[in-house]
Each structure stands twice: as C-alpha cells, then as structure tokens.
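Structure request: W2 domain-containing protein, Haematococcus lacustris.
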Amino acid sequence: MVVTPVVSTSCLSAGEALRIIEQRDLIKSDFVLISGDTVANLNLAPVLAAHRARREKDKNAIFTMLMKPVHHPQQRLRMGCSETLVCLDPGSNRLLKYVEQDSSSRVAASFK
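Returned structure:
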C-alpha cells in the first residue's frame, strides 16, 4: 500500500478534497479517503473486498462509505454540533441523500 498525503488549507469537505485529488490526477486505482483528524483501529481488508465485489456487479458502484453513529455527548461536542442526515435504499444500501446541517436547521426529504 502506498500512502500519499495531500495537504490543503482550503478544503472544508471530502468533496473538495476529492476535487483537488482529481485535479492533480492522483487517482489511478482504488483508494481510501479519510479526514486528517481520524483515529481508528480497524481492518479495512473486508471493507475493500466488499467494495470490489459490489463494483464487479455494478460498475457505477464507485465508492463505499464507512460510518459509525456517535452516541456519547462528549464525542458530539468534540466533533461539533452538526447533525447528519443519511438516506439509504433499503434493498441495495445505496446512498440516496447525505446532508450535514447544524442542529437548528431542518431538511425536507421526499421518498419515492
């Protein structure tokens, strides 16, 4: 595995980071994108295998997200006050909507 750190002082989201990585033409194969403040101890091999199996069946399966709910109030305080709305297709687990918002705002969602 090759680790290529990409430093940017202007990125505020994963989307912006991906845009910079794409502009620099750094992506040649599968990759893992994590925030710089991430501390984790997990085996990514099964996640990568599941991603590759999904992509083998569906070429449009271009990314896999790992998410974990934060339950402890101190964790929420350290990470900020934002709420995250995640909508998944129950049959395929495909991401339909992902919205980060502050806890005082509301999001309208329609499901068809």
